[in-house]
Structure prediction request, 303 residues.
Amino acid sequence: MELSLEEILQKTKNVVIKAGEKVKEAFKSREIINSSVEDKESNPTDLVTAVDKEVENYIFSSLKVLFPSFLLVGEETVSASESKKVILTDTPTWVIDPIDGTMNFVHGFPFVCICVGLVVKKEPVLGIVYNPILDEMYTGIKGKGSFMNDKKLPLIQNTPLKSLQRCLFITEYGYFLGQNELDIKVANAKSMLSLPSQVRSLGSCAMDMCQIAKGSADFYFEIGIHTWDLAAATVILRESGGVVVGYKRPKGIDNSIQIADEPFDLNGRKVLCIRGVIEGKEYQSKMLGEVRERLKDCEIESD
Ligand code: IPD
Prediction:
């Protein structure tokens, strides 16, 4: 029997809620957190905890039972694999980040979420982003809208975007990738600050994207994110009327295609998003173009 995406969402949401109980329990206990941080000697700014691994295992094993024919990709299993690559095919594939915002989790900064996205033919079609600390459950299904705690997104009907100076940007610096990448990230933040405008950082790519989906901020951009950070949130943001693209026009895409209609490479490690606007796609393309022009790009190995 073929399940509808709504049925899949319902079953998966129950798994994510249970996983959320584990994350919340650990978040409340400094003892659990302090004893669970694992040193990645290769990069001390890219943390992993035993809780990340336990939650990923729990979600993997639960989804395997519920949807035996679907493939699974998770942050911790990919990081531990030899190829370190995210393989997306035509087969439905769960893309999971057990804790997005691990550094926040370790410090008790409450922007921490579980991300579970379903990708079919390389397109994200269903997404769940759950912050059990703030009790915010974001869900989205391609073509069916997105919601926070069952309220339709966007929650905030913002005024039209008039000029970049009035905009609220979000960006992140992520973990240390190298001096060149750091200089570019800082230059990009500076470029928006000197518009002048204001820039925020929550420390979780998925939480940032959900703010854009809510309508609480206008743009989000980041270099260095991974497929599991954004697969689920991409559906949620798009279904709220927002747009998710890369830093550059993808190769082979005709110039007549508006930016807002460009395809997005989930494995490309760079993201630029804009919230839904009442003026529509033409206007989103114009604003995205203005922001993209200000963003410096750099080479980075894809997932
Ligand atoms: C990180 C967070 C952070 C972003 C990094 C991500 P993780 O994910 O989303 O905000 O800046 O690029 O890697 O490691 O906490 O799952």
